[in-house]
Design a protein that fits this description.
The protein has helices at residues 10-22, 33-38, 91-98, 117-124, 167-172, 185-206, 210-215, 217-236, 246-256, 263-269, 280-289, 295-308, and strands at residues 2-6, 25-30, 42-50, 57-65, 68-70, 79-84, 102-111, 129-135, 138-143, 146-151, 155-159, 179-181. It is an alpha/beta fold and 309 residues long. The protein has 2 domains: 2-182, Rossmann fold (3-Layer(aba) Sandwich), CATH 3.40.50.720; 187-308, N-(1-d-carboxylethyl)-l-norvaline Dehydrogenase, domain 2. An 8-stranded mixed beta sheet has the order 5-2-1-6-7-8-11-12, with helices on both faces. The termini are far apart. The structure holds ketopantoate.
């Protein structure tokens, strides 16, 4: 199978490694000419390998050979399978920049935080097979082409414009066993959105690790208010979230990722644009559309916009 990957960040390179190891014919699409010029055709992945005893872990570093090309490289054939792993605020423009190279019935899989771009691409391109996913894989870049696989998570994917279709989920299990088909990808994306609304902006504002949100009474009380508003919107839209209250689920995720700094914390600290528009911003838009007051989420949204400016 042939795959093109747009977005050579941590998740993009992680999937390039999974595809390459499965024997898929994989190509990285690099939008930044300076980055493309420094790429030597391979990248490094550093992973923990379990030794004889499960408590004994060793770091293992491998070289993954995957070719890369510019978006407008001449004489490049049509794209049949495209994985987009850019930041959420970039995915629509990334998609539009490669649109002309897509086969008529190409498959697009979007793997990023937040909501909005996936739905826009699916609505505007009914002839394409548009898939979206949510992952708890942990990976980060040490440098442009050195990937650290921090944790093995689970990925759920589903087709936005035909939820019954399981074809891609069945195919991708060959390269990632911890992948399952989501028969309701809309709800799956909402679940991730709800967790990100609860955790990400607060960690950026309080400048803390995820775990402190559940262990610190004041932060937890703040998270409770946010979760309550998110639940009001989800319930109005008849989107099921979790079997337990969102605050309990958010605390569980915060505890499971206690030592992590959330992606939004890291973006704000490094003065990068964050994904607030497609996380809390998306929630606020949906709330406004249905006239549901979400004052605390709105306040957080404005605070993060100010911080990142
Ligand atoms: O997805 C995350 C993020 O940081 O974006 C969480 C779940 C908060 C884990 O850090």
């Amino acid at each position: 199978m042939q795959w093109h990957i747009l977005g050579a960040g941590a998740i993009g390179l992680l999937w390039a490694a999974k595809f390459q190891r499965t024997g898929f014919n994989t190509t990285l699409l690099l939008r930044n000419p300076a980055k493309l010029a420094t790429y030597r055709g391979t990248f490094t992945i550093v992973e923990s390998s379990i030794q004889e005893s499960p408590t004994q872990k060793a770091q293992q570093s491998s070289q993954i050979a995957v070719p890369a090309q510019a978006l407008d490289a001449p004489d490049c054939g049509l794209i049949h399978n495209l994985l987009i792993t850019t930041k959420s605020y970039d995915s629509l423009s990334a998609f539009n920049s490669i649109r002309h190279r897509l086969a008529d019935n190409a498959r697009i899989l979007l793997l990023h935080n937040g909501m909005g771009p996936q739905q826009a691409i699916a609505e505007q391109n009914p002839q394409l097979q548009v898939w979206a996913g949510s992952t708890t894989d942990g990976a980060y870049l040490n440098s442009a082409f050195e990937l650290i696989r921090a944790g093995h998570g689970h990925t759920r994917i589903g087709r936005l414009n035909d939820p019954q279709d399981q074809s891609l989920s069945n195919q991708l299990i060959s390269c990632e066993q911890a992948l399952s088909h989501s028969p309701d990808i809309h709800a799956t994306l909402w679940q991730k959105l709800a967790i990100n609304c609860a955790i990400n902006p607060l960690t950026a504002i309080y400048q803390c690790r995820n775990g402190e949100l559940s262990s610190h009474a004041e932060y937890r009380a703040h998270m409770q208010i946010i979760c309550h508003e998110v639940e009001q919107v989800a319930s109005h839209l008849q989107t099921p979230l979790f079997d337990q209250p969102l605050i309990d689920q958010a605390c569980l995720v915060a505890e499971q990722t206690a030592n992590n700094y959330s992606s939004m914390y890291q973006d704000v600290i490094h003065q990068r644009r964050s994904e607030i528009e497609t996380i809390t911003g998306y929630l606020c838009q949906q709330a406004a559309k249905h006239k549901i007051p979400v004052p605390e989420n709105q306040r957080l949204y404005e605070q993060i916009i100010r911080l990142q400016a």
